[in-house]
Amino acid sequence: MNDLLRSLKLNILHVGHAKLDHHWNYSDVISPFMRLFYITKGTAVMNHTNQLFVLKPDYMYLVPSYIYNSYSCEEYHEQYYLSFFEEIEPGLSVANLKQLRFEVKANASDVLYFNRLMTLNPDLEIKNSTPKPQIRKVLTQKDKKANISFASSNYLETQGIISVLLSRFIMQRDHVVLEGGDYRDLNKVLIYIAKNLNSPITVEKLSKYCGLSADHFSRSFIKKFGMRPVHYIQSRRIARAQLLLLSTQDSLKQIAEDVGFKNAAYFSRIFKQITGNTPASYRKTHFNL
């Protein structure tokens, strides 16, 4: 699995330190980028992945991309924050391959890392802590790397520091434990799916691509990923649709076709089944100010 990690791409979006009070109170936030908080004073609470996290000093917290989350602060807390895009090969995330923990005890070097990131990236502080303007600003950038205009040495050091901080949340055991010949086959099928979301993808086509029988492929996929291939494909299509809904003005019909749904009504039904919202409601809630 580490061979895929070598293709990890990181793109910093925001970094800074904030003093927050009861106005830091938002629900049903979903971002197409990862967020990392290091609490230095006070407390707050956060919900995601069906878990409640009490944010406390000297701990760091990770929020994966495309995960609904809510957070609130009753009185006051201070935090370092970092948000970044991460991608392994086209369309894959670290979370696809590795088990993640979402809370870790900070160590003495972590505060130094955050301060160094702020020194290297002095113009990436969030001016408005309200989530929707942050997300809209990021997604309407013509180029995600538009904010990276500094020297190559700064860029490389920034990549290194983010890698170190992210590594603290990656468990040693792979999210997908692969044995034998299926290792390479199931690795490459994830990449194939990510690259071909706009085209018809069937279990038969995937099994042939891997050189396995349909039954063997399906059993292996369920064992390794914990879900049927068709459900995985749908989840990746809906994640891609979420990004398009936030970053483009394309019609729902066009977006449905772009992510492999030829029937707009079926696209809406699957979208609501996975996200709890219709595509139109999702766009209105998360894009419009």
TrEMBL record:
Specify the domain of life of the species encoding this protein.
Bacteria
- Give yes or no: UniProt keyword Mitochondrion: no
Domain HTH araC/xylS-type as annotated: residue spans: 187-285
Membrane-spanning intervals of the chain? none
Q: Which Gene3D superfamilies match?
A: Homeodomain-like (1.10.10.60)
Matching entries from Pfam families are given as: HTH_18
Establish whether keyword DNA-binding is in the entry. yes
Record GO terms (molecular function):
DNA-binding transcription factor activity; sequence-specific DNA binding
| Entry keyword set | DNA-binding, Transcription, Transcription regulation
What is the protein's name according to its record?
Answer: AraC family transcriptional regulator
Name the species this protein comes from.
Answer: Algibacter mikhailovii
